[in-house]
Amino acid sequence: PAEPSLGERALIRQAQKRSIARAAASTVRAGQTLFIDAGTTVSALADELATLNGLTIITNSFDVAARITTAGREDRGHRVFQIGGQVGPGAAATLGAAAIAGIARYRVDMAMLSPVGIDSTDGATSFDHDEAEIARAMADRADRVVILADHAKIGQRSRVSYCGPDRIDLLVTDMGARDLAELDRLRQLVGEVIIG
User: How far apart are CA 176 and CA 136, in angstroms?
Assistant: First the structure.
């Protein structure tokens, strides 16, 4: 079965996504350069990052870019770069070879990514091959990989693995994950876990 649409996902577990976004944003410092992929959890992250100062954000997500640069927000000195590429149907993001080539131009402090699922065997996974390739390229060009995943994604595996658990520096999840056996297994493999 296909992954639910972006609109459908935006309505699911909103409070948990905001909690994860706040916790993940608390690890970011002024002056850092970040990759952010596309998805509803990282869109919530963008709202939190917009309140910080002096970040450079490189993203393939139209929503992430718009949330950080929305008119009416106080100018916090952010620089936002929209990665070019093919626009995926229903994804509201750029994909494909041109986007991957754009990512390869940068070296960043952190890649902040939100998978379809994460488990202790395959790490972060995506349903869509093109989205997984974007996330893989971002992870490969980052000093730290931060995965944002609500409790429903812990222990889930989708079709395409893009970041093994040993490459994940930080997993940020919500309180619903604290008693999951799979989270205990992930704690043994990833660098750090924060429960927001």
Answer: 27
